[in-house]
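Final paragraph of the annual report: two paired records, presented back to back.
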Amino acid sequence: MAGEFSRTSRIGDQLQKELASLIQFEVKDPRLGLVTVNEVRVAKDLGYADIYYTVLGKDDQPEVLAENQAALDSAKGFLRRRLAQEVKLRVMPHLRFHYDQSVVNGSRMSALIDEAIRDDETKNGN
């Protein structure tokens, strides 16, 4: 069981590196911003790879995020073919792109904590 997890984890890491490079250098879609691939989770049967990404500096603009999602979705076939050339697997997983909300949520939580600390310091006279 642990061996299977580590295999899919290794495949996910390799796909993450290749996808980051392919998206940056080979996808020529004008809708695509500065995309960072945060994580790739590969299903145990290698049927799907869930790709979690963020877009640099555009976290608060839903229309920009929608354009990036559409650009990535339209590039799925191209990216899968290129991955099959770069990564030697018997079966290349189907790609599913998901915007990674965790980075935005982490920044928001950090800002709220900083604000609460400032409020406490102001109330306590520090």
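The closing record of the year follows.
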Amino acid sequence: MDAKTFLRNHIAEIVEIDEDTFEEVFTFFKPKQVKRKELLIRGGETVLQEYFVVKGCLKTFCHDEHGREHIVQFALESWWVSDFPAHASQARATMCVEALEPCEVLELTYEAREEICRKWHSMEYFFRKKSNAGYVALQKRILSLLQNSAQEKYDLLLTQYPQLFQRVSKTLIAAYLGVSRETLSRLGKHDK
């Protein structure tokens, strides 16, 4: 499925949009091919865009003062990715976004999204619903990190996103869960 159809179907899951409107909305998006290990967002740079993932897998991450990587989000097909706090205020990124495999994304600038929302109420509703869903998912992730054991976090991730375990290294999954690679190996022995 091409990027345009993929986005059209994604929007149609939430709002009805006629073909002429969609054609105009699509002109605000910029298709982009991303190489494995390419950074879409670098820490310290002003964040003016967000990305809709058509194909591939990306990660949003930061490093602490000891150089340890902390993964905030993986983004698979039909997910949106950015450093959202920086994007919302068009500030400097505190996180990076990197492709874990060759990716195809649709880039949407902050100004373009604002223009889309001004012109079409249905698209403003779409973006509000997507933002709310992202906020809910983030709160659930924070609660899981605070309340669940390492095994429970592992099991939850495996249940919700089994495809991640086929596409992402165990080292990255360990960083996402906040456990060591050795701990992750022990956790994984339980699902055989």
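The first strand starts at residue 30 and ends at 34. This concludes the annual technical report; the extension proposal builds directly on these records.
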